[in-house]
Amino acid sequence: MVIVIDAKIPFQILGQACDNASNNDTMLSALEALNPESMSGVHTRVRCICHILNLVVKVSSQRI
């Protein structure tokens, strides 16, 4: 987190594209805590459509 703070990254983030892992929620909450006025945090998360489609295909192929 020291590198993130030194580079002022929390002040430059508008949104995040992540997969569906819960550890990404933890990371985004931590970034939001560093700069509460920024447009970062869990509410600006964009889930990766490729990851979602991959999960759908995996589940669908198991049912065939």
Describe the structure.
The protein is mainly α and 64 residues long. The protein has one domain (2-62). The chain is 50% helix and 9% strand. It has 3 helices and 2 strands, in the order αβαβα. It has helices spanning 2-6, 22-34, 49-62; strands at 16-18, 45-47. The chain has a two-stranded parallel ribbon with strand order 1-2. Helix 2 (22-34) links the parallel strand 1 and strand 2. The termini are far apart.
Helical content stands at 40-55%
β-strand number = 2
N-to-C order of helices and strands:
HEHEH
Q: What's the arrangement of strands in the largest beta sheet? A: 1-2
Give a short account of the largest sheet: 2 strands, parallel
Helix-strand blueprint:
Layout: H1 2-6, E1 16-18, H2 22-34, E2 45-47, H3 49-62
Parallel strand pairs: 1-2
Summary tags:
64 residues, mainly alpha, two-stranded parallel sheet, 9% strand
Brief sketch in words of this structure:
This protein has 64 residues and is mainly alpha-helical. 50% of the residues lie in helices and 9% in strands.
